Amino acid sequence: MFCFFWILLSFHQSPYLHPITTKKHIMQARSFSLAIALLCSLLSQAQNQSIRLNQIGFYPQGPKIAVIAQASGPNVFSILDAAKGDTVYRGTLGSPRKNSLSGKNTQIADFSGLQKTGKYQLALADGTRSYPFEIKPLVHRAVAIGALRGFYFQRMSTALPTSFAGSWARATGHPDTKVLVHASAASSQRPVGFEISSPGGWYDAGDYNKYIVNSGITTATLLSLYEDFPQYCRNFNTNIPESNNQVPDLLDEVLWNLRWMLTMQDPNDGGVYHKLTNPSFDPMDLMPHQATKPRYVVQKTTAAALNLAAVAAQAARVLRPFQQQLPGLADSCLLVARKAWDWAVQNPKVLYEQNELNKSFDPDIVTGAYGDRNVEDERVWAATELYLSTQEAQYLSPIQFNNDLSVPTWNQVAALAAYSLLRLKKQSAGAATPLRERAIAQILKLSDQLVADLDSRPYHTVMGKTARDFVWGSSAVAANQAIVLLQAYRLNKKGEYLQGALHNLDYVLGRNATGYSFVTGFGSKYPLHIHHRLSEADGVVEPVPGLLSGGPNPGKQDKCPGYLSDAPDECFVDDACSYASNEIAINWNAPLVYLAVAVEALAQQKALKKKR
Fold first, then answer.
1. Residue 106, SS3?
2. Is residue 279 reached through a cis peptide bond, with omega within 30 degrees of 0 on the bond before it?
3. What residues act catalytically?
């Protein structure tokens, strides 16, 4: 009872209930409570670190898998009622699976046969118990809402009131109504120091800047979610200021960034500025309203123009039914897309090379470069979106799938073009039929590669097949792999694809080699010290919720001490200094939103059933 009292008292000091509580105060209180909790853990042998599972829960008829790392004792497990302690299910652990990345063995606990709703824990023979989890319909709805609300917390140029932001309310910062044209972006109509207004948008990551290239894949992923699951998204309320305005909340959030993106086009020639940024990153302890360095738009680039062309063309298609609520916006988007495309045709390879620019132009810019040496995939993507929105033959010839598709990232977006082609109905594809068939073949080929040998993998996830999965933003690799599989599932309803996507959601929410749920605020063990200026500077102990931490990255580019391991799937540290493994980014959150919303939509359609 002593242990229970102290843990309850200390670990439920929620910043939702105590908005003025500071990190210093809570951390002092928790230092003692952590010691008590550790003692209690040792006394009760409830060391759940060896049990890795989705810390949120499972669908009643869906697969339910936990992974036991470093198992000892008899190969049996039980599922217990979390409140009563009664055993409701018994099972046998699978044979050991060797993890080639770490050399460690794991065992699988499969309790898919348990379908009764409730709150449970998994228990091993030695008394070890898992974090609590639930079995219930729509079990990931809160995650889906939280992940989309993560974008609300990243909004710029606006105050976030307590009524919508809770403990993370903040003053207006970065109005961006007087942004300077950098010397690298100067033209006769807009010379050096010319002021433009470019408000809105989302903070890109843990910093306070805005980047067109990264906004491209982010905004497109959210628009694609609406295209793929429109009925679900129309009723997906997330409690943002625009809720109940006759536009779906998902699109309201997209509009906050889309409208900023449109301001980044120079109306004189159609070119698009690569980014809007400070010359250098702000200190970690400044809130937005305290960060007042001059802001610049920097060089127009082909990558930026093609990203805006693609997103604006897709937006024109998606927003067309909302002309009454958003008069003229779809037409404006299409006009912007055409002008950006025409600029890119005239300037086919203007690349962003930050170090070279700094040799010629002042002030030096040392924020995120998002440089891309090859823009052919952006060209294919932009042409595809323009063709689909205009049906004009001029946009067909640039669409070439010359190489196998890969899981999309900000600098490799050909898969986004393929996704859009899949949305064409076979009977109405017309001249695009060969392209659609090529896209289908490529998506299915990639999906088959992703799910191959799934049943022998140490964490029974698509994610982690090779060490190459663990890069900067590896959590988003898992989410984007799942989107590939969901696209394949929408083609042929093959259960293996849907199951693979769901297993990767399990990975993100705790069934991984670190034992973390990588989504802040969700699960029993999630990162508390993300590399995120808003979370570091706000005086609230809990990080901003609904944000996806980057996850294991053996590159360790930040040189931050304290990494858990050198093994690729364990190379993570929950420390704000670790921008290589523990930063957040909008292009990582977008696929999380897509994945969580998609599985919820499919669960409503009763598509999620256990594998037989």
1. strand
2. no
3. 207, 531, 574, 583
> Tell me, what DSSP letter sits at residue 523?
S
Please give the Cα distance from 14 to 18 (Å, whole number): 6
Token look-up 């989504």 returns: 519
Please report which confidence band the pLDDT of residue 402 belongs to, taking 50, 70 and 90 as the band edges.
confident
What is the DSSP track for 246-308?
SS-HHHHHHHHHHHHHHHTB-TTT--BEEEEE-SSPPPTT--GGG-----EEEEE-HHHHHHH
CB-based contact 600:59 (threshold 8 Å): no
Tell me the HSE value of 43 on the side-chain side, using a 13 A CA sphere. 10
Q: At what angle do helices 414-422 and 376-390 cross, to 10 degrees?
A: 20
Give the model confidence (pLDDT) of 9-43 as tens digits.
333 333 323 333 334 443 444 444 434 433 443 33
Burial class (CB in 10 A: 0-12, 13-18, 19+), 446: buried
pLDDT tens for 190-236 read 999 999 999 999 999 999 999 999 999 999 999 999 999 999 999 99
pTM for the model: 0.93
* Nearest alpha-carbon partner for 209 in 272, 141, 281: 281
Nearest to 329 by CA among 315, 311, 350: 315
Identify whether the C-beta of residue 193 lies closer than 8 Å to the C-beta of residue 180: yes
Closest CA to 505 of 441, 461, 569: 461
Q: What is the side-by-side strand order in the sheet with 65-69?
A: 51-52, 65-69, 105-110, 97-98
Strand partners, 412: 409
User: pLDDT, tens digit, for every residue of 308-357?
Assistant: 999 999 999 999 999 999 999 999 999 999 999 999 999 999 999 999 99
87-92 and 105-110 strand pairing: unpaired
